[in-house]
């Protein structure tokens, strides 16, 4: 979740932010619009959602979607998403966006947000660490599938490490930020170790081959 129009911004107003796909050949992106001050999505006021489809088939992170929020003087909010390379567009119009919550309700929400600010931030950081670990697992899986330089025994070892880590995440989805960070470092260490081992083996083999056939 990211803020596009901050609290107390003047309106009419128009602001944009660019997002990228998370997965290879991602077909669509679901865009959800919320109003509120809390760090976690579920704790904010839901305004609406829409989906941008028919994204080009590319590697993760290679497709850019610009999301624009435009609100007029009457509180009419238009949220538009545009895929930059193809021009594919989707949008949603939300009427009376600034009047969905009463002044009293807004004050109440602001008070609540301030009282749980530290707890919300801690939970946000925990979820970000979990997402980082899941993204690392995904990236390693993809690299194992695509990297033909990896020897089979190293590939199998790395696949086993990734599978074990995925099982751990599924069984420990409520783990702390510190626990997720430990697993991230552990997985990176295993990845680097196997990469170094493979590289060293290849260099040694090439040296031996060169020596063997030297005239």
TrEMBL record:
Gene3D superfamilies to which the protein is assigned, alphabetical: 1.20.1270.10, Substrate Binding Domain Of DNAk, Chain A, domain 1
* The organism's place on the tree of life at top rank: Eukaryota
Q: Does the keyword Protein biosynthesis apply?
A: no
Tell me which UniProt keywords the record has, alphabetically.
ATP-binding, Coiled coil, Nucleotide-binding, Stress response
- Please state the span of the N-terminal signal peptide per the UniProt entry: none
Molecular function as annotated in GO: ATP binding; ATP-dependent protein folding chaperone
- Coiled-coil positions: 151-178
Q: Could you list the residue ranges that cross the membrane? A: none
Pfam families membership: HSP70
**InterPro entries annotated for this entry?**
HSP70_C_sf, HSP70_peptide-bd_sf, Hsp_70_fam
The family annotation for this protein states: Belongs to the heat shock protein 70 family.
PANTHER family, sorted = HEAT SHOCK PROTEIN 70KDA
What protein am I looking at? Heat shock 70 kDa protein-like protein
